[in-house]
Amino acid sequence: MTKILVIADIKDGVLKGSTKELLSKAKAIGAETAVAAIGSNIESLSADLANAGSDTQYIADDADLELFTAGPFASCVVDAAKLFEADLIWFGFSETGKAVAPRVAAKIDAACASDITDIEIDGGQITITRPAIANKVMQKIKINTKQLVAVVRAGAFEADPGISGSENVVKLSAPEPDLKAVIKEVVSDASGEIDLGDADIVISVGRGTKDQAGIDLVKGLADDLGAGFGSSRAMVDAGLLAQNKQVGQTGKIVAPNLYMAMGISGAIQHLAGMTGSKTILAVNKDPEAPIFNVADYGIVGDLFEVVPILREEIKKIKG
Amino acid sequence: MKILTTIKKVVDVELNINVENGAIIEDGLQYVMNAWDENAVETAVQLKEKNKAETTLVNIGSGDDNTKIIRKGFAMGIDNAIQIDDPALENSDPSIYARIIQKVYENGEYDLIITGKQAQDTDSGQTGIILAEFLGLPCVSNIIDIEAVGDQHIKVSRLGDAGTEILELELPAVVTVSDGINEPRLPAMRGIMMAKKKKINVMDLAGLGTSWEELGGGSPQSEITEFLKSETRQAGQKFEGDAAEITAKVVDLLANEAKVI
Ligand SMILES: Cc1cc2nc3c(=O)[nH]c(=O)nc-3n(C[C@H](O)[C@H](O)[C@H](O)COP(=O)(O)OP(=O)(O)OC[C@H]3O[C@@H](n4cnc5c(N)ncnc54)[C@H](O)[C@@H]3O)c2cc1C
Known about the structure:
heterodimer; A: 319 residues; Rossmann fold; seven-stranded parallel sheet; five-stranded parallel sheet; 8 helices; globular; B: 261 residues; alpha/beta; 7 helices; 15 strands; binds flavin-adenine dinucleotide
C-alpha cells in the first residue's frame, strides 16, 4: 500500500484546512496516511491531526522550532519520512512547503515536484500534473524515483468532511539548530488579519484603487463580508500594501469561493494566483481589461462609484 | 566577495503559448532572461557597488538567445560569464542543473550564490535550494532584502508564512531572490556597448570537469512526458451601464445564482 506523509500546515498554533485536503486525497487514492507536525507548543494538536485524516502523527515539538528555519524543519520531515517509510511526502502550498520540499528531496535523493494539481499512481509508477509558464500550460511529469516530495497547489484537492483517522502519536527528537543560517526575528505585519488562504471571500485591490483612500473604501467592503484582503503587485510596488498581501505568481495562490478584483487589469502573473477561485467578480472601468476574460461577473465602471453601491446592496441582502 | 549568479533563458510569458499533440508549439516563441534572474543579477551588481565584489554569471545553454541574455547580464554590470554548452543538456531536470552549478561553484571558490527564486518556464523553484543542499551550504529562499555584514556574513529578509523572517547567514551561502528585492536596472548605452566586447567563457561538460553520466543524466529523477492546454475559465456575464442598476443586478446574482454571499 502506498504510504503518504502529509506535512501539517500550522499557523499561530492552529491546524490549517490544507492538511485535511491533502489527507483526504491520500485516503481517496487508498493510501496509508501519516502526518508530520513540526513546531513549538503543538502537542495539543494531536487530536486535530487525527481528525484531519491521519493514522499516525509524527510530532516534533521544541522551543527551537518556534521560529521557522528551513534546515531544521527539513530534518524533522526526513526523520518522519524514514520512520513511516513514506513513498510520497506532501506539503500544502505555503512558503514553508516551497522552501522545505526541495531540501527534503535532495536529502533523500527523491524527485521533487512543485505546485502539483493531480497525481496518478499506477502499479508503483507515479505521474503528476502541474501548471507551468504562469499557468499557461499544464505538464504531465513521470517520476522515476521511488519516492516523491511534492508541494500541492492551493485548492487542488478538496477536503472530505467524512474522513477521520486515529490518534497514534510518535514523538520526533528535536533537530540540530542550523548554526550557519540563524533566524533573528520575524516581523509580522499580518497579526489579527484574516488569512488569505483560509478566507471564503478574498477581495483584492489593484492600481485602479489609486491611493490609501481607495484602499480604505474597499477595505470597508472586505470588513462587511469578513473577507481576506489582497492586492496586485502594482499596489505593493507603490508601497501602499505589504508584500504578504500580493496575490499572484510571486505572491499567494488563493482559491476562495468568491474573489473580487477591484481595479486590477488581469496580468497573467496576477491570474496565476486567483483563477482557481470558484466565482470571480471584477470591477474595472476598462471594458477590454483582461480580467473580464476570467470573471464570472463583470461590472464595467468606476470602482469609486461601484464599491459604495456594492456595500449598500450587500447590506440589504445580509440584513 | 566573489558572487555567482545563475541566469536562464525562458520563453516570454507575455506571448501566447499553444500546445498541440502534447508539445508546445515553438514557432513564434521568443526568449528572454528569466525575470527573477534579472533580480538576481541586480542583487549581485548592487552588492558589488556597495561592497567591492567580483560578479560572475553562469548560464546553461546555447544559441543566440542565451548569448543575448548573457550580454544583458554584462550590460547590467556583471564582470564575468561562464556558459555551459553541451548537447547532452537538453531537457534536464532541476537536480541536473543543480549538479552543474555545483561543479561551477567548486571550480571557482565563490562566497555567495544568488539565483532567482524560480524560472518563469517551469515555475518549479527548486534549483537554488537543491544546489545548496548538494553543497552543504546554508540557504534562504524567497528573499526580499540582503546586506553584507563584514566579510563572513550576510543578513537577509525572507517573505515567509509568519511574516518577514530576518536571518543571518554564514558565507559561503546560497540565496534565492523574489522580485520584491529590487527593480532590475535598464542597462545604459555605455554598458550595452561594453557588453558586446566582453568574453564569454564557454565550456562543455568535459571542460567543466564532469560528464553526463556523473551528473546522473542517464537516469533523470523526473521527465516531462506531455504538455496539456490549461483549463481556461470562460468569460461570464459583463454588465455595462447605470452603476446602481448593474451593481444591484450583480449582487443579486452573487447571492442567488452563484450563492457565494
Ligand atoms: C516575474 C513577475 C512576477 C509578477 N508577479 C505578480 C504577482 O504575483 N501578482 C501580481 O498582481 N502581479 C505580478 N506581476 C506584475 C503584473 O505583470 C502586473 O504588472 C500587475 O499585476 C498589474 O497590477 P494592476 O492590475 O493592479 O495594475 P494595472 O495593470 O495598471 O491595472 C489597473 C487597472 O485598474 C483599472 N482602473 C483604473 N482606475 C479605475 C477605476 N477608477 N475604477 C475601476 N477600474 C479602474 C484600469 O482599467 C486597469 O485595468 C509580476 C510581474 C513579473 C514580471
